Amino acid sequence: MIVPGSSSQQLAAALAEETGRPLATPTYDRFPDGEGLAAVPDFAGDEATIVAATDADAAWVELLQLQDAVREAGAERVTTVIPYMGYARQDQSFGDGEPVSARAMARAISTGTDRVVLVNPHEAGVADFYDVPVETVDAASVLAEPLPAALDDPLFLAPDEGAVGIAETVRDAYGAGDTDYFEKHRDRETGAVAVSPSDASVEGRDVVVVDDIVATGSTMSESVAVLNDRGAARVLAACVHPMLAANAVTKLRGAGVDRIVGSDTLERGCSVVSVAPVLADALE
């Protein structure tokens, strides 16, 4: 059965439809003292695929409970799909006495599963922290599907040189256009940081700014403002993980983003395309 975490109900349903597997209906309760309880009263069978984005601390606890619940109900094999892995940016200790939080979370999850599937983790190396087999899938190609069919001389821009691969993936799936990345320039006197495309001209072109995750939207908003100043025709934002915390959407729209496109690894208003087909291939 496909077992959804409370933050991944739409994706789990899409994955169940894609794979033909039955969809369990967990219950998510909270006691007066604040403790949560995730249960799977209708679970049946000997194999479970839990689909749970860990976008908040409570989601990690819920995932551990779902793992234990399906084992208690008789599951002999458990696959844990984490479409968005929280703490993936904390992949090292950044100061004395600080934890490697991604490692701590991965070790905990490993105790209740036989296998883990990650979707575009922010730091690829976090896969090594798990004590069970891990498969990492690249779902960036799905972002091409909801883009307008007739982009004008499109340019796909990554936030930095290291992430240009994700822009190339979306460009290849779209079938046309160029790729480039933003460079950061720091003023030695003022310390101010400016961003600009490294090479490509943007004037009169439709530009798609592509990233794996948009959290606060601050960096992307700065980039969009530069593009508009340089005469881009339209600017669209595309990301696998639309975290869009706090006022990120307002920042992006205020900066001149024409449209925000995200996948359902995190279920937001802009989650207009599903990673279910990519995950289905990984689960075969």
Overview of this protein structure:
Strand 9 and strand 10 form a beta hairpin. It is built from seven helices and 14 strands. It is of the alpha/beta class and 284 residues long. Helix 1 (9-19) crosses helix 7 and helix 5 packs parallel to helix 6 (248-255). The chain has helices at 9-19, 57-72, 101-110, 164-174, 218-229, 248-255, 276-283, and strands at residues 2-4, 27-30, 36-39, 47-51, 77-82, 115-119, 134-137, 155-158, 178-186, 193-197, 206-213, 234-241, 259-263, 271-273. It starts with a strand and ends with a helix. The model has no long low-confidence stretch (mean pLDDT 94). The strands form three sheets. A seven-stranded mixed beta sheet has the order 10-9-8-11-12-13-14. The protein is globular. It is 27% helix and 26% strand.
What is this entry, summarized?
This protein has helices spanning 9-19, 57-72, 101-110, 164-174, 218-229, 248-255, 276-283; strands at residues 2-4, 27-30, 36-39, 47-51, 77-82, 115-119, 134-137, 155-158, 178-186, 193-197, 206-213, 234-241, 259-263, 271-273. The chain is α/β, with parallel strands linked by helices and 284 residues long. The mean pLDDT is 94.
Please give the largest β-sheet: 7 strands, mixed
Order of helices and strands: EHEEEHEHEEEHEEEHEHEEH
Our Rg estimate from Cα atoms comes to: 20 Å
**Mean of the pLDDT scores?**
94
Order of strands side by side in the largest beta sheet? Answer: 10-9-8-11-12-13-14
Q: State the end-to-end CA separation.
A: 14 Å
Q: What level of helicity do the residues show?
A: 25-40%
Low-confidence stretches: none
How many H/I helical runs? 7
Dominant shape: globular
The secondary structure category is alpha/beta
Strand content: 25-35%
Number of extended strands: 14
